[in-house]
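Severity: low
Component: inverse-folding endpoint
Summary: output formatting inconsistent between runs
Steps to reproduce: submit the following structure tokens with default settings.
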């Protein structure tokens, strides 16, 4: 949502956390009675307890002014800033970020049209999402409770550094409070993801694939918890097969599905464990095998991909593989 004075219609309350100047810090149970949830498709206020990495989401919102809502999951809600110009991958750009009220965790996957007469009327898409971690003390904080504490400390101190792993926005960013408690700057740190390219030119939703201008009705909603890995740790399967494309009669847009270019190569699975990685080729007669007894978690994971070799003009081709070797 775009910045709004405290007490206005549509106010979202947050968990019991106090911030300087009173931004946030109100119980999520005290949702504004003026908000008509049977008239808007937006999810009602609620605190969600989860496990797994922390979520970030950036929603593009065509309200009175087109802007981007930058949200960080922490303590069951989404800490939120309205960024009028959107994020940048260039450290030279210092983007205004106005602190707004905390939003429910379920809002992270919200796409649709907020009706006229409701606060923030207009179209909303999930422009980007992924996982994040504070990175002031370490590149990545695996312990969720420790990560949330660092986030809260950073907010209280007026400087929060986070590592974002999204589809469009990647790398380290700083949120810096300036002249008052609601006025912040979103600044890209110098790292390997820096570019002069305008990332906001990538205008489609990472969920539905449509732009905010194309949003005319609420698409099928994906649960917010499905945007990031979650669940309890368990032993990985001894065998794991690759993902394969499926046949369809026509293109479609559905939650949980993504379109990707078909690369001329071999499907592979990369297994990461204890700081080491290996890849296994995946064919119809072979499935990748990993050591038994290894649990799912930050230190052990499978990543699907494709092994390709360049051919003429740098395009991948299967016939290039014998020349490149194994």
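Observed output (run 2 of 3):
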């Amino acid at each position: 949502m775009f910045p709004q004075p405290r007490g206005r219609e549509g106010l979202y309350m947050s968990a019991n956390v106090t911030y300087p100047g009173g931004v946030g810090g109100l119980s999520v149970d005290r949702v504004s009675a003026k908000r008509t949830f049977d008239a808007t498709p937006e999810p009602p206020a609620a605190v969600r307890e989860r496990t797994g990495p922390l979520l970030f989401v950036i929603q593009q919102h065509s309200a009175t002014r087109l802007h981007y809502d930058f949200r960080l999951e922490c303590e069951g809600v989404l800490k939120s800033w309205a960024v009028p110009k959107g994020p940048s991958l260039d450290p030279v750009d210092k983007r205004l970020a106005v602190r707004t009220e905390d939003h429910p965790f379920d809002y992270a996957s919200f796409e649709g049209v907020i009706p006229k007469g409701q606060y923030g009327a207009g179209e909303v898409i999930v422009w980007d999402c992924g996982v994040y971690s504070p990175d002031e003390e370490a590149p990545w904080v695996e312990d969720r409770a420790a990560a949330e504490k660092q986030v809260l400390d950073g907010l209280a101190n007026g400087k929060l550094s986070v590592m974002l792993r999204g589809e469009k926005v990647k790398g380290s960013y700083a949120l810096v409070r300036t002249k008052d408690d609601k006025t912040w700057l979103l600044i890209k740190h110098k790292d390997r993801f820096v570019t002069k390219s305008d990332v906001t030119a990538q205008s489609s939703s990472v969920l539905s694939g449509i732009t905010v201008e194309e949003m005319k009705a609420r698409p099928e909603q994906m649960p917010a918890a499905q945007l990031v890995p979650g669940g309890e740790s368990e032993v990985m399967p001894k065998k794991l097969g690759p993902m394969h494309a499926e046949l369809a009669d026509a293109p479609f847009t559905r939650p949980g599905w993504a379109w990707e270019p078909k690369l001329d190569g071999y499907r592979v699975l990369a297994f990461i464990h204890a700081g080491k990685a290996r890849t296994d080729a995946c064919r119809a007669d072979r499935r990748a095998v990993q050591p038994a007894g290894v649990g799912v978690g930050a230190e052990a994971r499978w990543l699907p991909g494709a092994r390709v070799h360049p051919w003429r003009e740098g395009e991948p081709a299967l016939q290039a593989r014998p020349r490149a070797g194994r």
